[in-house]
Design brief:
The structure holds two protein chains of two kinds. Chain A contains 15 helices and twelve strands. Chain A is of the alpha/beta class. In chain A, helix 4 links the parallel strand 5 and strand 6 (151-157). By secondary structure, chain B is an alpha+beta fold. Chain B contains two helices and five strands. The N and C termini of chain B lie far apart (45 Å). Classes of the chains: A alpha/beta, B alpha+beta. Chain A binds chain B through residues 10, 22-23, 25, 27-32, 180, 183-184, 186-187, 190-191, 194, 202-203, 206-207, 209-210, 238, 240, 243-244, 246-247, 286, 288-289, 291, 303, 305-306, 308-309, 312-313, and chain B through 8-11, 13, 45, 54-58, 60, 63, 65, 67-68, 83, 85-93.
């Protein structure tokens, strides 16, 4: 191959060069980007990273980018937060939150996948890009398309959170609302990609798109001092991210950038949409699709395309999958905010809640290094927790009014505060 | 009005370019059978070695995934549309 990567069928192994296609036309199985690691070992060196900014482009050699690719903006490079309070509360010694709630430009990990997808869109000469989305992806496509001069057309379920619709509309993207759930939207997009010459990032550009997720994993390893964690807890919608973090870790081992070690992969879902965790827990040969009914709409994919691969990875790594109810999601959002100062969206509530559950099941142990992946920002799903925080009564701008307020709120504590 | 089976572009290599097929099947299973009898090259792409519909192929009856309708034994009526849509996965071990 002229470049050091090309598309390869995940099942039959046939290679397809580089093109906007997502499945093998011989056996109709998924395509993924395969790399020539022998060639990469000679050119991609860990030492080279020292001179580069801390964002996802520092790993460019390990991404499917054209030779003439020019970085348009910083994406990724998010904090790995060493937990103190929540770690103590949960009895863990080495707990970290990988915080993509503050990923730029649109505040979710989807910025990473859109970054590599739009590099592919430009290479394949698309002028219109789009996606099927539960919200975050539409935000990311709209933001980066605006920045890079693509026309954007995104397809979303009609009942999406208002903030996520607004966060797409503001960038000037065309929004097509579909009467149906995400799985209906996704099916329609597969048909649209079949008919129109558009670059749909998670359809015909999907192999390139999903490679962007790997940078979440590279950053985790680098921020842990070029070591791998013992456990990773990952939210699952379509099931792609968890498999790509695993691919990132494997690649770092292959390149000799980290030492090999077993990593357990744990998947997190909302009980109201849990086809993958259900498949793991019931040890199903094939997961059973579900009709989503959860406040975690960014994870509400009832027919997860990468579900089979996610289940296989979780099983083979010795990990597990769990799910939490909507009230548990809200509690976990509040817990993470109150203890770590991280305000995550409902998907992050799922991941934090599931982590707590896994600790309770003794699947995650105190001495192990555990990374919990937070993938989106709480400002986008305020509707989900608004009822928890009713507006308080206003008081007059006078000291006696404030003292009366304190007495009413705190009783004797107020008196001692005054003293 | 018969039942219509809609065929995605990628499958049309095996149908001589035919984009849709009319059939008179009573169930989705029969419809798929009629399809693969007419286009034998398609059969290994529709079903795996165990005879199950392939994992990365989604089959819809009108707007609904057939797995929500009891699977491929679900009944068809005149004017129904059966859609074959490849599942778009990223794929990584």
């Amino acid at each position: 191959m002229s470049l050091h990567y090309e598309l390869r069928c995940r099942e039959c192994g046939k290679t397809w060069g580089n093109a906007p296609r997502s499945f093998c036309e011989d056996c109709f199985s998924p395509l993924e980007v395969a790399y020539d690691y022998d060639s990469l070992k000679k050119t991609a060196r860990r030492d080279n990273l020292a001179a580069r900014d801390f964002n996802m482009w520092r790993y460019s050699e390990l991404l499917p980018l054209p030779d003439d690719f020019v970085t348009r903006s910083a994406v990724g490079g998010t904090p790995l937060v060493a937990s103190r309070k929540l770690a103590a509360k949960w009895g863990l010694k080495n707990l970290y939150f990988k915080n993509d709630a503050v990923c730029f430009p649109s505040l979710s990990f989807k910025d990473r996948v859109v970054a590599t997808a739009l590099a592919a869109a430009r290479r394949f000469n698309f002028t219109t890009v789009g996606c099927s989305s539960t919200g975050n992806l539409a935000n990311a496509v709209a933001a980066q398309a605006a920045q890079q001069g693509f026309d954007a057309c995104v397809f979303i379920p009609a009942d999406l959170e208002a903030a996520k619709v607004l966060n797409t509309a503001v960038y000037g993207a065309r929004i097509v609302r579909i009467n149906g759930n995400y799985d209906h939207v996704n099916r329609l997009c597969a048909q649209i990609a079949d008919r129109f010459q558009w670059g749909l990032v998670n359809v015909n550009l999907r192999p390139y798109y999903s490679e962007g997720s790997k940078t979440h994993g590279y950053e985790i390893a680098e921020q842990l001092g070029w070591t791998l964690p013992d456990n990773v807890v990952v939210p699952m919608a379509g099931g792609s991210l968890i498999t790509k973090i695993a691919k990132a870790f494997r690649e770092l081992v292959t390149l000799g950038w980290v030492e090999a070690k077993p990593v357990k992969f744990f998947g997190a879902q909302a009980t109201g949409c849990s086809p993958i965790s259900d498949g793991v827990k019931r040890n199903l040969q094939r997961f059973e699709p579900q009709k989503p009914n959860t406040i975690a709409r960014s994870l509400a994919i009832g027919n997860p395309a990468d579900g089979p691969y996610a289940i296989k990875l979780i099983r083979e790594s010795g990990g597990w999958a769990e799910d939490v109810s909507d009230p548990q999601i809200v509690d976990a959002i509040k817990l993470l905010a109150e203890t770590e100062g991280i305000f995550t969206e409902t998907a992050g509530g799922v991941t934090a809640g599931v982590t707590q559950k896994l600790i309770g099941q003794n699947r995650i142990k105190p001495e192990e290094t555990t990374v919990v992946c937070i993938t989106g920002n709480g400002l986008k799903t305020t509707d989900a927790i608004a009822a928890e925080f009713p507006a308080t009564e206003a008081i007059a701008p006078r000291l006696d009014a404030f003292e009366a307020y304190l007495d009413a709120q705190l009783g004797t504590t107020a008196a001692s505060a005054r003293a | 009005m018969p039942v219509i089976i809609e065929i995605p572009t990628a499958f049309r290599r095996f149908t001589g370019g035919v984009p849709k097929v009319d059939c008179s099947a009573a169930t989705v299973a029969e419809a798929l059978n009629e399809l693969t009898v007419r286009f034998p090259d398609l059969s290994r792409h529709v079903r795996d070695d165990q005879g199950q519909i392939r994992q990365f192929l989604n089959v819809y009856l009108n707007e609904e995934d057939i797995r929500f309708l009891g699977g491929e034994s679900c009944c068809l009526k005149e004017g129904d549309r059966v859609l074959l849509v490849p599942s778009i996965a990223g794929g990584s071990e």
